[in-house]
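Try this one yourself first.
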């Protein structure tokens, strides 16, 4: 058993693996360089002067500048021109781009020098005095290891052994402008807070020539990836590529590049250099449309398949950190230590183009990925990857999960996008099934893979499967707008456990399932026909231990000192967000502008440093935010003061980021909707010495736990401005008290605790499922239990009344009342005639309805109203019925508001009625209805009323609901048949259970027989410790018996009565022929 336990693994499925690959090929690189020259260089003849070549470059640059100015003038004049439809319909977006002007002298100088025109390099509105100052004061290019993220998605992974090998290196400056004439290897545009670290760490080293990029924005136009020298080349840092279109066939433009690369190909009619074309395309797209950055990190030309499709050709490659992966997840797994990390196997995509790779290459990558990094790549078609991730996930699911509707353009391609989404999820499921071994735990992550749980469950019905959704989950009113809502929900319900970041997201999911699928729900999860899906919140955290180690790095301390010197005499407010509208950067800037307008005394004394990370989708938010930054700085700047430092084009290192958090006077997060926001956790840890306040949006998942922060509504600019003023003027004692409370939460809600909590709960949820180990449940045979029955001194017989002893028509019962059948009364009288039998009937009926049965069978014990009242087997034949309440002390004030809600829905649901008892209320909604439309409407109404009662009254009054096919029962939470039976067994163990009339005494129960359909009671009785094993018999529907944990089964009604008659016959035969035989003792 220990060996089997040690071999268990955790298969972690995420859309992107923690590692990606980069190829190396010197020979291919040289060939590609020559191909690029043939494609883009103008035709030259022998003897052509250098001046003519420069003239050609100048002409190309001038023509491009003219086109750019004409396009801008058309936008500003309101003429559509070449502006896209989406752009022309949004005046605000059209006017949001920076208004650069071309300096002809600079243009000519740039062209003569052979460099990219300055206006194509960086927007002047994006360059701040802070960046210029840092670039001028610190220009060293000392190598530095790649830093890792501790929290949010999209940050880079850590280099192995970084903490142990770190050296005290001086802080480095931000990289110099790419237009520097001395630069031989221009830096790529960074995409995350540390995405450019690898490139920066090797500045000044010998690198291969930088591959040029094609004018379609798809990255390198070479047919194979660029060469990597012994040091990492800055030009090959893995990053998300850009492409302006999302229509099917997005790679068609590459074919033209390939065909035009032949030696005899005619040159383009206009000859802009590749670099200037890239800049112009990026600038034009930023102004006129949306630029999509593909997770397929490096493009593959179709010529690649011709050159390297042979299995004999091997392309060298190496593994690198995947820049787009969820490193918050991977770092959390690693923080759990060898207990989890050593057993984890990651399943996902590499984030590269895959169509061109041969079967031989894929097999080699598979083997090395598993051997070196415990990764299992999922191989997808490139078009399916794009349609799934960039269309369905980012344009349909992402907006909906963040409380906005998908755009009309996204909905046009939704059908094809969802088709690709299904195929991608099926590929993941197939890969997981192929990798699965008996005993493994499957843990699926995020909204990219919502269909995978059900797909895996169909093949592996007994596997433990968990799903965790890292982003927010919307309310049912938003989710129901998705056209594929049912498929998504049923896909998720294939898991044993579904986890969310907060309790609100869990509630939204439960309500959505109840209202859309009309499935019964409880406070713990979703009730399915043969299983139960546990749903719970698991707030993720950070690795506090590793973060504290990073804070001690010399770089961090030196940057803290330099930043304090740079901002001496001023208060510093820090913000760090992806430049996505959902992060509320625009709202934050507007609130800061309002604060400065209303509090002019703070002008010159406070600075907002906003770190804006690039996103997968870059839209008009960039220009809009830049405009606001420029307006604030124009309004309040002076010769020595700039109120907003906006870091977007040039990002900062992780050491600089920690230094900012350490020396900040406040941190502001104004997300409009966010799953968690772990940056606020990092800020709390970094503020261990200063203990400065945290301003946090109430729409972030972290707000539910970090209640000692200054909570804000980001849509309320005045409130945010007041929060900034409060943070800057708060006294030291209050700041210390708030920080202490925040710190207590952060250090207890760690990444390690999150991983272990989810996995342990997943195992418990899986073990609590109805056992599928037996395909058949045998019929109860009395002959097989005769020996135990005869020997047992005292027997407890528990019999369910509804759907077991009798099968009633609820509507007829409602109209005429309950009348005990004569056959039932006769069987119960003969069964209770044996003084060793303690027979209890379990019913949901009221005590008034059951009085008639109690008088007809005096020695019968009864548990009424779903366990709220009990009557023991002690009443004399002519005695009165005495009921004992099991719900004394429970607040019954819930009955009136519940009745009001039920009355409202009863009036609007044909055929519905209310059955009210002293402690329970039952609502029948489609009993006796045969019209399918009426049934569908009634079930929809039932889902609505259950959700309404649960949300408004459930937690307040501790209520629970028992769901049946045509009705549900509302009752106090800790009441039921199982607690009532537990109470009786406890009295029996203490010798306090009342003894039957006419018997001298009573021994402890030695045998228990239960016939009914309450699965909780079945489970409890199966584990009762008695001299003889309890016999549990289910009367559930035949199609659900396979999931029951009962030892045998009977059909309700006649089969049950016949079995009881057979038990009576055993007693009668013993009376006739003597006591039990010796073999029975």
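Now uncover the answer:
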């Amino acid at each position: 058993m220990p060996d089997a336990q040690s071999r268990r693994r955790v298969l972690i499925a995420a859309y992107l693996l923690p590692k990606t690959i980069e190829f190396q090929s010197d020979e291919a690189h040289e060939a590609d360089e020559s191909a690029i020259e043939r494609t883009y260089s103008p035709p030259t003849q022998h003897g052509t002067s250098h001046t003519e070549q420069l003239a050609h470059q100048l002409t190309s640059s001038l023509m491009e500048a003219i086109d750019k100015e004409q396009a801008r003038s058309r936008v500003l004049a309101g003429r559509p021109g070449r502006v896209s439809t989406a752009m022309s319909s949004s005046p605000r977006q059209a006017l949001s781009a920076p208004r650069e002007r071309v300096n002809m002298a600079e243009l000519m100088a740039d062209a003569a020098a052979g460099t990219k025109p300055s206006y194509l390099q960086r927007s002047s509105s994006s360059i701040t005095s802070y960046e210029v100052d840092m670039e001028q004061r610190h220009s060293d290019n000392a190598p530095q290891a790649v830093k890792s993220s501790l929290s949010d998605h999209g940050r880079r992974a850590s280099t192995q052994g970084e903490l142990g090998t770190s050296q005290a290196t001086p802080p480095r400056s931000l990289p110099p402008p790419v237009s520097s004439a001395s630069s031989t290897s221009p830096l790529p545009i960074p995409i995350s807070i540390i995405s450019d670290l690898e490139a920066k760490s090797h500045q000044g080293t010998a690198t291969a020539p930088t591959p040029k990029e094609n004018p379609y924005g798809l990255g390198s136009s070479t047919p194979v990836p660029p060469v990597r020298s012994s040091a990492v080349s800055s030009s090959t840092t893995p990053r998300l590529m850009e492409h302006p279109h999302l229509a099917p066939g997005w790679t068609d433009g590459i074919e033209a590049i390939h065909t035009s690369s032949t030696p005899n190909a005619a040159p383009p009619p206009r000859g802009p250099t590749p670099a200037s074309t890239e800049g112009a395309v990026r600038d034009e797209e930023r102004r006129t449309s949306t630029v999509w950055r593909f997770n397929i990190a490096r493009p593959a030309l179709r010529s690649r398949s011709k050159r390297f499709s042979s299995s004999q050709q091997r392309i060298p490659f190496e593994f690198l950190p995947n820049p787009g992966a969820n490193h918050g997840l991977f770092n959390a797994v690693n923080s759990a230590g060898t207990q989890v990390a050593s057993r984890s196997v990651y399943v996902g995509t590499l984030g590269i183009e895959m169509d061109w790779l041969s079967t031989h290459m894929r097999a080699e990558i598979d083997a090395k990925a598993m051997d070196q990094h415990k990764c299992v790549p999922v191989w997808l078609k490139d078009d399916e990857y794009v349609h799934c991730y960039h269309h369905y996930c980012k344009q349909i699911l992402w907006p909906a999960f963040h409380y906005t509707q998908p755009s009309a353009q996204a909905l046009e391609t939704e059908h094809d996008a969802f088709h690709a989404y299904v195929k991608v999820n099926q590929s993941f499921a197939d890969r997981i099934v192929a990798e699965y071994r008996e005993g493994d735990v499957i843990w699926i992550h995020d909204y990219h893979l919502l269909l995978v749980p059900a797909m895996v469950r169909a093949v592996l019905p007994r596997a433990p499967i968990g799903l965790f959704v890292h982003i927010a989950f919307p309310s049912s009113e938003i989710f129901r707008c998705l056209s594929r809502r049912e498929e998504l929900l049923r896909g998720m319900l294939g898991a044993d456990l579904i986890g969310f970041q907060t309790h609100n997201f869990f509630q939204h999911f439960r309500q959505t399932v109840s209202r859309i699928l009309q499935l019964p729900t409880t406070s713990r999860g979703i009730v399915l026909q043969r299983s139960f899906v546990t749903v719970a919140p698991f707030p993720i955290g950070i690795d506090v231990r590793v973060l504290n180690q990073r804070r001690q790095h010399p770089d961090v301390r030196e940057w803290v000192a330099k930043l304090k010197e740079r901002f001496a005499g001023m208060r510093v407010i820090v913000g760090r967000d992806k430049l996505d509208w959902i992060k509320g950067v625009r709202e934050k800037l507007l609130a800061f502008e309002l604060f400065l307008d209303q509090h002019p005394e703070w002008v010159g004394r406070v600075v907002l440093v906003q770190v804006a990370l690039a996103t997968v989708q870059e839209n008009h938010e960039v220009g809009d935010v830049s405009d606001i930054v420029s307006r604030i700085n124009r309004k309040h700047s002076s010769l020595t003061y700039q109120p907003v430092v906006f870091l977007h084009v040039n990002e900062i290192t992780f050491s600089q980021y920690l230094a900012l958090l350490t020396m900040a006077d406040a941190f502001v997060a104004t997300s409009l909707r966010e799953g968690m926001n772990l940056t606020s956790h990092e800020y709390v840890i970094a503020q261990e010495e200063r203990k400065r306040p945290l301003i946090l949006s109430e729409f972030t998942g972290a707000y539910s736990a970090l209640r000692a922060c200054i909570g804000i509504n980001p849509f309320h600019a005045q409130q945010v401005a007041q929060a900034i003023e409060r943070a800057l003027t708060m006294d030291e004692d209050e700041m210390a008290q708030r920080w202490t409370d925040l710190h207590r939460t952060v250090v207890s809600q760690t990444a390690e605790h999150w991983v272990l909590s989810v996995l342990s709960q997943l195992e418990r949820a899986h073990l609590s499922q109805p056992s599928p180990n037996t395909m058949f449940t045998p019929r109860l045979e009395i002959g097989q239990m005769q020996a135990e029955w005869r020997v047992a001194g005292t027997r407890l017989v528990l019999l369910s009344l509804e759907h077991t002893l009798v099968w009633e028509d609820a509507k007829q019962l409602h109209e005429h009342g309950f009348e005990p059948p004569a056959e039932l009364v006769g069987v119960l009288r003969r069964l209770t005639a044996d003084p060793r039998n303690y027979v209890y009937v379990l019913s949901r009926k009221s005590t008034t309805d059951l009085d008639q049965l109690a008088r007809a069978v005096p020695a019968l014990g009864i548990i009424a109203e779903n366990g709220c009242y009990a009557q023991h087997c002690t009443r004399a034949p002519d005695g009165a019925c005495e009921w004992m309440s099991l719900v004394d002390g429970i607040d019954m004030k819930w009955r009136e508001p519940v009745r009001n809600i039920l009355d409202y829905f009863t009036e609007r649901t044909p055929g519905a009625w209310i059955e009210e008892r002293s402690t329970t209320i039952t609502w029948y909604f489609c009993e006796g209805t045969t019209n399918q439309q009426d049934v569908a409407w009634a079930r929809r109404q039932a889902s609505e009323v259950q959700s309404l009662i649960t949300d408004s009254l459930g937690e307040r009054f501790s209520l629970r609901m028992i769901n049946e096919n045509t009705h549900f029962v509302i009752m106090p939470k800790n009441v039921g048949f199982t607690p009532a039976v537990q109470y009786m067994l406890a009295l029996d163990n203490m010798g306090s259970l009342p003894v039957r009339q006419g018997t001298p005494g009573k021994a402890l129960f030695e045998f228990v027989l239960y016939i009914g359909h309450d699965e909780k009671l079945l489970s409890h009785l199966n584990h009762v410790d008695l001299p003889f094993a309890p016999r549990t018999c289910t009367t559930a529907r035949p199609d659900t018996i396979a999931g029951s944990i009962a030892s045998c089964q009977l059909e309700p009604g006649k089969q049950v009565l016949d079995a009881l008659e057979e038990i009576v016959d055993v007693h009668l035969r013993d009376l006739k022929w003597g006591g039990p035989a010796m073999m029975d003792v």
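Discussion: The first strand starts at residue 10 and ends at 16. Confidence is low (pLDDT under 50) at residues 28-48, 74-312, 1077-1081.
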